[in-house]
Amino acid sequence: MKNLIITFIISRALLASIPSLAQVEKADTIQIGKTRIITKNVDSTETGVTKELLLIEGDESKDLITSWFNLKVGWTNWLNESGNLGSDNNFPLLEISPAQSFNLQVNIIEQSLKLNKDRIRLIYGIGFDNYYYRLKNDISLSSDQNGLIITDESATIDFKKNWVTNSYVTIPLLLNFNFALNKGKKKDFQIFSGVNLMYAMRSSVKQKWREDGLKYKREGKQELGVNQLNIGYEAQLGYKNFILYGKYFPDGIFKSASDPNLRSVSFGIVNFFSVE
User: Fold this and answer.
1) All residues at 6 or more sequence positions from 177 whose CB lies less than 8 Å from its CB, including other chains
2) Do the Cβ atoms of 111 and 68 come closer than 8 Å?
3) What share of the chain is helix, strand, coil (3-state, %, to 5)?
4) Cα distance between the two ends of the chain
5) Which residues lie below 8 Å from residue 180, measured CB to CB, with a gap of 6+?
6) Do residues 87 and 260 make contact, with C-beta atoms less than 8 angstroms apart?
7) Which terminus of the chain is less hemmed in, N or C, by CB atoms within 10 Å?
8) Tens of pLDDT along 94-127?
């Protein structure tokens, strides 16, 4: 049916030819799904009547845009009490490999609300934010009422994999500013700034090693005394659909004063995959 309508409009555009003494413009618009079809009569004393046919995909003027499964993928690291990348100086065994530590945020639903034409939008949604820390040393982590417990197992175990994962429910609240780099050009340059409201769901461990030719594995939920509520800052910088992000959480990862004084910092790419 859609193809028949488009063929009919094109046929009209090619066959129409009605002379006129004055120059007049008339336009008709038909909406088919996300496509707008615009036919315009241009009457001229020199050329008679001509038809212009425009196919416009989508609608950039929507006040509210909803997207699903927006992804942020990047690297994560720790900032210590001195503001340097790395572990707390009082916990030298608690080190991670930054090149193998990742941040994966999946916003299940995300909406963009127009505040000022298409120049300023409010972005909000809900999703899951996960931090995968690759531990350098052969240690195991647990906690009790006094805080985090670090067990050195290097004398008996050589871990092939030693991961700790912190998972959160997150609510992002960001302002999106759109600019044109050159006058008259499309607003392709974007800046995002705002916060993430986070609630810790769980921590888990995954450890693998070999001993006497046998493979061993530990994995599952682990209580590590992670801060239940956290608020983090986020900034994004993009050109067209290519967007980079950075996140920083000023509050400590752990809630006890006796725990390592560590904060999370991450950077990566946005919208690796999304569905509208």
Assistant:
1) 119, 120, 190, 191, 192, 193
2) no
3) 5, 60, 30
4) 24
5) 186, 187, 188, 189
6) yes
7) N
8) 999 999 999 999 999 999 999 987 789 999 999 9
pLDDT one-digit tens code per residue, 126-174: 999 999 999 999 999 998 888 899 999 999 999 999 999 999 999 999 9
Encoded amino acid at 142, one letter: S
Question: Among residues 25, 19, 14, which one has the least CA distance to residue 47?
Answer: 19
Question: 133: alpha, beta or left, given left = phi > 0 and alpha = psi -120 to 50?
Answer: beta
Alpha carbons 29 and 56: distance in angstroms, whole number: 10
Asked whether 16 and 51 are in contact (CB, 8 A), the reply is: yes
Instruction: Give Rg (Cα) of the chain.
Output: 28
The Cα–Cα gap between 156 and 28 comes to 79
pTM across the whole model: 0.74
Show me where the domains of the chain are located.
Answer: 2-57, 64-270
